[in-house]
Amino acid sequence: MKTFSLPYGNASLTFTLPESCQVEEILPHPYTMPVNVDQTLQAALKDPLGSTAFSHFPKDASVGIAINDKTRPIPKPNPLRHLLQTLEKEGFAREKITLFISSGTHTAMPEVEYSRLLAEDIVANYKIVVHDCDRSPMVDLGKTAYQTPILINQAYFESDLKIAVGNIEPHHFMGFSGGVKTVAIGLAGRETINTNHAMLIRDHTLSGVYHINPMRQDVEEIGRKAGVHLVLGTVLNEEKEIMRVFFGDPISVMLAAVPVVREVFGRTVPQPYDLVIASPGGAPKDINLYQSQKGLTHAARITKDDGWVVLLAACPEGSGSQSYEDYITNVDSHKSVLNEFKSGFFKVGPHKAFQIAREAIRVRIILVSEIAPQNVKQWKITPSQPEKLQDLLDWLFIQLPPNPRIAILPGATRTMAEVQNTND
Predict the structure, then answer these.
(1) What are the phi and psi torsion angles at 392 (to 5°)?
(2) Which domain holds residue 380?
């Protein structure tokens, strides 16, 4: 028997497969780690990409820093500390620096959860604002070329120096995360997010597509009009350790980072698999179904028509979206979801139903999670539980063809797997 262990929440799930299986474990390509990450961060902050630098701003300037919420991995070490130290060395006053937690449409984090993101001394010494896409005061910056209304957190917009901090990695429809997305989506109004994400059904809204991805280019325009000056972006390995650091003006950072992310996380396979066993990557990637679905997209791309995807996602916070639950429990089928979205309906939350349906009409999906099975069934997904994983796989092996081809995706959210010769 072959033994495998995949991330699941803050732990892992272990299972075995018969020796007769053709099993391939698909991981990001190896990448040389920095010898000294602290020095790498300091060097990047000292020598920004592009033409923008700290010296261009007066020392009494107010500084707004957009950071991710609890649904995103926290790099080791956290680059925010290096950024704050650099700002103070450059003469910017601590009391004029505000950290904005970029919630997007996610549930806003309560103060008791700040320690999940930030060290105690940072929480104690800096002003922290949690963005609410429905309640935070917004500034109206007009519309993008794609006719997306630009509503951005007013307090952040009014900062003299605007910085965004985030991880740059594959994104299942935005092409790539990071850059100004932390502001353009994370600190935007709901109407902005809804309109941008409605482009989900357009061509080229795919993982790994940047220059011709309409949703990503819309985000870049929002970031420009919001006036984001600098971006601090990190590329992480599976242990959340920093492999690369990019700092500078937003476009320079993305143009430098995108080829690296493609090199590390892009994988091609010769043909699709009968079964793909995938983990989004453990906590916080599988904090809820809303986040875990991103791993499903990559897994399904390399699964045969009528094949199986087993998604190992703890989802301790359930679906992560009440609007998704309200929507999916009141439609007849995945086909109905697709028809409704193709007819013009769009809403953030229910859009997860569309993304899942797009895969579910072609492949068979089983969700192994902590969510009550009756709830998962209401969401039109087949449920299973972690303690039953081996029994499930033993049963599946009987359903599969002789000598089945099986793929293991331990970090499915970030592994841009695709079948060779497909045209994105």
Answers:
(1) -60, -50
(2) 2-28+270-419
* pTM (two decimals): 0.86
CATH number at residue 115: 3.40.50.11440
Across the strands, what pairs with 273? Answer: 303
For residue 1, count other CB atoms closer than 10 A to its CB: 8
* Residue 89, beta-bridge partner list: none
pLDDT (tens digit per residue) in 123-173: 999 999 999 999 999 999 999 999 999 999 999 999 999 999 999 999 989
Summarize pLDDT for 67-109 with one digit per residue, the tens. Answer: 999 888 899 999 999 999 999 999 999 999 999 999 999 888 9
Q: How many domains would you assign to the chain?
A: 2
Name the nearest CA neighbour of 180 among 226, 117, 115, 111.
226
Ramachandran quadrant class, 26 (left: phi over 0; alpha: psi -120 to 50; beta: rest):
beta
Helix (H), strand (E) at residue 386: none
User: Two tokens at 182?
Assistant: 């932390």
Q: How far are the Cα atoms of 6, 36, 136, 324, 330 from residue 132, in angstroms, in the given order?
A: 34, 37, 5, 18, 27
Secondary structure element (H or E) that encloses residue 222, with its range: helix 214-226
E strand spans, 330-386: 364-368, 382-384
CA-to-CA distance for 258 and 240, rounded, in angstroms?
18
CA separation for the pair 242, 76 (Å, rounded): 6
Q: How far is it, in rounded angstroms, from Cα 281 to Cα 333?
A: 28
- DSSP assigned state of 122: H
189 and 251 fall within a common domain: yes
Q: Is the link from the previous residue into 77 a cis peptide, with omega within 30 of 0?
A: yes
In a domain, 135, yes or no: yes
- Looking at 205, 235, 264, which one is the last position of a domain? 264
Q: What is the CATH number of the domain that holds 298?
A: 3.90.226.30
Q: For residue range 205-251, what is the model confidence (pLDDT) as tens digits?
A: 999 999 999 999 999 999 999 999 999 999 999 889 999 999 999 99
Residue where one domain finishes, among candidates 213, 241, 264 = 264
Q: How far apart are CA 328 and CA 127, in angstroms?
A: 39
Whole-angstrom distance between the N-terminal and C-terminal Cα of the chain?
A: 37
Q: How many angstroms separate the CA atoms of 312 and 389, rounded? A: 9
* Residue 163 located in a structural domain: yes
Residues 224 and 131 occupy one common structural domain = yes
Q: How far apart are CA 231 and CA 256, in angstroms?
A: 12
Do both 177 and 207 map to the same domain? yes
Q: How far apart are CA 14 and CA 7, in angstroms?
A: 9
- What is residue 19's predicted lDDT score, i.e. its pLDDT? 86
Residues 181 and 289 occupy one common structural domain: no
**Residue entry with tokens 């592994």:** 415
